[in-house]
From TrEMBL:
The gene is Dana\GF10673. This is Malate dehydrogenase. Substrate binds at residues 104, 110, 142, 176. Residues 170-333 form the Lactate/malate dehydrogenase C-terminal domain. It comes from Drosophila ananassae (Fruit fly). The active site is at 200 (proton acceptor). The lineage of its organism: Eukaryota, Metazoa, Ecdysozoa, Arthropoda, Hexapoda.
Length: 338
């Protein structure tokens, strides 16, 4: 009897619409031929639930697509080239992840990339507005603190903005925090649980070390050093690459983790939580990174900001005006573009 019951529930699970959907995703990578785009596409390709992995870039990607298509996973790899094929690339996508744009050079701040990369946000948001307004749209392209407000403004102007479906990927800040804190504690970084709030540039990146699990018990000076390293980790890579760009491999790792979380949540998995930079009412900044529970339709729940210590509250007070200014700049960019 019990066996029959189990068989029946397995049958229901394997034929439920969620299960069918879980094997039927289209994911589009914009900027798929670039330094982040290639490893990101490779890692996303490993997800067995993908029906179509659509690669978009400004240059031809036949070679990359053929290469990826030989991996023994179900589904197909398609390519789309240039602005004229952007709408076709995103059409029908469950998730669109954007890695296109210029990287930083040594000595540059992320903000300085807005002139080069703002147009990417505007063009992708325009294409999504027309061809796939219901998709989950996630940006890696910098400066995240401005790019997400730009995309939001374009989606708003087109009457399709849904704050629960637009993301700036800040997963790499969490990945780095886990690694650096885990190493400092002599623990497996995978077992470190840490929330990173704020934005994705310098002091706007705020890892909440006081909430870390297991607790980090270092001296104040060590805590300060760790926070600074997490905030400047992107610059550490830019310097090490000495003119050859910024983080690509660790960013692809983080981006693929975020896409995987989105897909698991779309598929009906409960309790999927990621930090991301989104339109938010948690603070006075209109866009803010915090912990989010993901669901079938994007953000299911904005988790409360955890209880912070005095140092963290001071750091939050300092970063909020920066995020507000960044949001205004991103919105201005969009208004000029539209
Ligand atoms: C990073 O954090 O590595 C990226 O935002 C790239 C950069 O410019 O630092």
């Amino acid at each position: 009897m019990m066996l029959l019951g189990r068989l029946k529930s397995q049958l229901v699970a394997s034929t439920s619409p969620w299960r069918l959907l879980a094997r039927n995703y289209k994911v589009t990578v914009v900027g798929a031929g670039g330094g982040i785009g290639q490893p990101l596409s490779l890692l996303i390709r490993q997800n067995a639930g993908i029906r179509e992995l659509a690669l978009h870039d400004i240059n031809e990607m036949k070679g990359i697509a053929t290469d990826l298509s030989h991996i023994s996973k179900p589904g197909r790899v398609t390519t789309f080239v240039g602005e004229s094929q952007l709408e076709a690339a995103v059409s029908g996508a469950n998730v669109v992840v954007v890695a296109a744009g210029m990287p930083r050079l040594p000595g540059m701040e992320r903000d300085q990339l807005m002139a080069a990369n703002g147009g990417v946000a505007a063009k992708v948001a325009s294409a999504v507005s027309v061809a796939c307004p219901g998709t989950l749209l996630a940006f890696i392209t910098n400066p995240i603190n401005m790019i997400v407000p730009t995309a939001a403004e374009v989606l708003k102007a087109n009457g399709v903005f849904n704050p629960r479906r637009l993301f700036g990927i800040t997963t790499l800040d969490v990945v780095r925090a886990k690694k650096f804190i885990g190493t400092a504690m002599g623990k497996d970084p995978g077992n470190v649980d840490i929330t990173v709030i704020g934005g994705h540039a310098g002091i706007t990146i705020l890892p909440l070390l006081s909430t870390c699990k297991p607790p980090y018990l270092g001296e104040a000076k060590e805590i300060e050093k760790l926070i600074h390293r997490i905030q400047e980790a992107g610059t550490e890579v830019v310097k090490a690459k000495a003119g050859n760009g910024s983080a690509t491999l660790s960013m692809a790792y983080a981006g693929a983790q975020f896409v995987d979380s989105l897909l698991r949540a779309i598929g009906g998995q409960e309790g999927v939580v990621e930090c991301a930079f989104v339109a938010s009412e948690l603070t006075e900044a209109p866009f803010f990174a915090s912990s989010l529970e993901l669901g079938r339709y994007g953000i299911k729940r904005y988790l409360e900001i955890p209880q912070m210590n005095e140092l963290e509250m001071e750091a939050l007070a300092k970063l909020l005006p920066i995020l507000r200014k960044n949001a205004e700049e991103g919105i201005d960019f969009a208004r000029k573009y539209l």
